[in-house]
């Protein structure tokens, strides 16, 4: 699917103006139906839609099985009629399905449409990690992720997520206009490959807020490393979940917010 589109634009300064063609990352809605009933509309960058849905339903406690489900694209238009219907046996639907989203989930928000604050709380055991990372390890992983950010190179407008295993080898990398969408695509991809249990380190190109931490926790990924800032709630829950959370990872510098013992 097309992820980048060219638009006519004017680059202006106080001195002059120049007409040019500018490449922009595509943002378009995807309607997700579950058993022929609308569940939510997600704003995303087209491509890897099934991975996006798989990761989203996993994080929302709707479908936690590793078996693949049937996904059928029932309507497709350039912008406004992307509809995918997911078929899941009622006995396999998790309790998250009862917290049905009633609003549009925009590309900058992973919890839009939740009916109550209680809906965003998660329960589970603390994650444990024996992996140790050095500055060189982290820089090498960011270099690997950066080389795979093709949409960002063209537009400067997409986010990326990359997931690595215990050997610091990349096992998936995805881009999207939404930070949490990129995470969902990576997790969904690993679910499809039956490799989620290999996931140990998550890199993200933007900031980390609560929903990124919760997705990593559900996927049992104990280390999150971000280019940008972390929110207060992200830090609070990272500490509660046993996740090593690192932000502002730039030019051989970083800020470690939780579980610093994993960095050498």
Give a short summary of the structure.
The protein is of the alpha/beta class.
Task: Name the features.
single chain; 264 residues; alpha/beta; Cytidine Deaminase, domain 2; 6-stranded mixed β-sheet; 13 strands; 24% helix; globular
How would you explain this protein's 3D organization?
With 264 residues, the chain is an alpha/beta fold. The protein has two domains: 28-120, no CATH class; 135-262, 3-Layer(aba) Sandwich (Cytidine Deaminase, domain 2). The chain is 24% helix and 30% strand. The protein has helices at 49-59, 135-147, 150-155, 179-193, 210-218, 232-241; strands at 4-12, 17-25, 28-34, 37-44, 70-75, 83-87, 104-105, 159-164, 170-176, 201-204, 223-226, 244-250, 253-258. The strands form three sheets. It has a six-stranded mixed beta sheet, sandwiched between helices. Strands 5-6-3-4-7 form a five-stranded mixed beta sheet, with helices on one face. The protein has a two-stranded antiparallel ribbon with strand order 1-2. Strand 10 (201-204), helix 5 (210-218) and strand 11 form a beta-alpha-beta unit. It is globular. The protein starts with a strand and ends in a 6-residue tail after the last strand. Mean pLDDT is 85; it is low at 115-120.
* SS content category: alpha/beta
CATH architecture of the largest domain: 3-Layer(aba) Sandwich
* Strand percent estimate: 25-35%
State Rg: 19 Å
List the helices and strands and how they pair.
Elements: E1 4-12, E2 17-25, E3 28-34, E4 37-44, H1 49-59, E5 70-75, E6 83-87, E7 104-105, H2 135-147, H3 150-155, E8 159-164, E9 170-176, H4 179-193, E10 201-204, H5 210-218, E11 223-226, H6 232-241, E12 244-250, E13 253-258
Parallel strand pairs: 3-6, 4-7, 10-11, 11-12
Antiparallel strand pairs: 1-2, 3-4, 5-6, 8-9, 8-10, 12-13
Helix pairs in contact: 1-4, 4-5, 5-6
């Amino acid at each position: 699917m097309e992820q980048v589109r060219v638009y006519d634009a004017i680059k202006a300064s106080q001195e002059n103006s120049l007409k040019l063609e500018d490449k922009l990352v595509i943002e378009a809605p995807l309607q997700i139906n579950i058993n022929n009933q609308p569940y939510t509309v997600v704003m995303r960058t087209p491509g890897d839609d099934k991975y996006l849905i798989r990761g989203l339903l996993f994080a929302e406690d709707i479908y936690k099985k590793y078996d693949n489900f049937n996904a059928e694209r029932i309507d497709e238009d350039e912008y406004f009629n992307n509809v995918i219907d997911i078929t899941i046996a009622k006995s396999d639907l998790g309790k998250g399905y009862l917290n049905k989203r009633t609003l549009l989930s925009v590309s900058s928000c992973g919890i839009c449409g939740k009916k109550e604050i209680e809906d965003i709380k998660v329960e589970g055991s603390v994650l444990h990690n024996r992996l140790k990372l050095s500055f060189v390890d982290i820089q090498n992983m960011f270099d690997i992720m950066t080389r795979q950010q093709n949409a960002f190179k063209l537009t400067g407008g997409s986010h990326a997520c990359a997931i690595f295993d215990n050997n610091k080898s990349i096992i998936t990398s995805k881009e999207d206009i939404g930070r949490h969408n990129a995470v969902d695509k990576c997790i969904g991809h690993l679910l499809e490959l039956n490799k989620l249990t290999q996931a140990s380190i998550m890199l993200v190109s933007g900031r980390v807020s609560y929903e990124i931490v919760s997705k990593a926790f559900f996927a049992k990924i104990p280390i999150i490393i971000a280019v940008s800032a972390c929110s207060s709630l992200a830090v609070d829950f990272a500490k509660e979940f046993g996740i090593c959370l690192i932000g502002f990872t730039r030019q051989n510098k970083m800020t470690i917010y939780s579980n610093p013992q994993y960095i050498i």
